[in-house]
Write a structure and sequence with these properties.
The chain is an alpha/beta fold and about 160 residues long. It is about 40% helix and about 20% strand. It has 6 helices and 5 strands. It is globular. Bound molecules: 4'-phosphopantetheine.
């Protein structure tokens, strides 16, 4: 029986419980996932791509069903290289929809064989975004419960609370 693998791409700066929830739920549908961490030198990232990969791997506790890789350039090209035609994305709110809709259609225009599958983010996580986590941590707020313990530790080292 062939196995079904999907690509779960993102910036993951940093990984949050929202991402981990989509990964766990995605694994109920797919046999495995490739988490594709965007390597984008132009983007102002809090954590380097190597740090984001390490944080994601640690948070996943070496689940053999998930492989964490980096990619740069077009996502569809990476998908082609990995021989995967399904992209998994989480959808939090209506505000995500327009961007995700454009991206999914652009990706399908670039490669007709690519399908994007959306999972609704769980009700506990719909308000979490990496950007808010970064901002709140930077401003000394508590992000425990929004991110896994290893990410919390990395954030507290980056932004020591007084
Ligand atoms: O976590 P993010 O930042 O919402 O993830 C966005 C991501 C990485 C999926 C998207 O920016 C992406 O695929 N970038 C690669 C460049 C690309 O393929 N662009 C064309 C699609 S519109």
């Amino acid at each position: 029986m062939p196995s079904r693998i999907a690509l779960y791409p993102g910036s993951f700066d940093p990984p949050t419980h929202g991402h981990l929830s989509i990964i766990q739920r995605g694994l109920r549908i797919f046999d495995g996932l490739i988490v594709a961490v965007l390597q984008n030198p132009a983007k102002d990232a809090l954590f380097t791509v190597e740090e984001r990969v390490a944080l994601m791997r640690e948070a996943l506790k070496n689940d053999p069903r998930v492989v964490v890789k980096t990619f740069s350039g077009l996502l569809v090209k990476f998908a082609e290289q990995q021989k995967i035609n399904t992209i998994l994305r989480g959808l939090r709110a209506v505000s995500d929809f327009e961007y995700e809709f454009q991206m999914a259609n652009m990706n399908r225009k670039l490669d007709r064989s690519i399908e994007t599958l959306f999972m609704m983010t769980g009700e506990d996580y719909f308000y979490i975004s990496s950007r808010f986590v970064r901002d709140v941590a930077r401003l000394g707020g508590d992000v425990a419960g929004l991110v896994p313990p290893n990410v919390l530790e990395a954030l507290s080292k980056r932004f020591p609370r007084t």
